[in-house]
Amino acid sequence: MLAALRAATPLIFCALGILVAERAGVLHIGVEGVMLAGALAAIIGTVLGGNPWAGMLATISAGIIAGIILAFISVSLPTDQVVIGIAFNLVSLGATSFIFRLLAKQLQVLVPAIPPLLFGLSPFTLAAIVLIVVMWWFLFWTGPGLKLRSVGENTHAAHASGINVVYVRFAALIIASVLAALGGAALTMGWVRSFTDNVTLGRGFIALAAVYFGRWNPLLALGACLIFGAGEALAFRGQGTGAGLNPHYYLMLPYILTLLVVGLAGMARGPGDAGKPYLRR
Question: Is the pTM of this model over 0.85?
Answer without folding.
Answer: yes
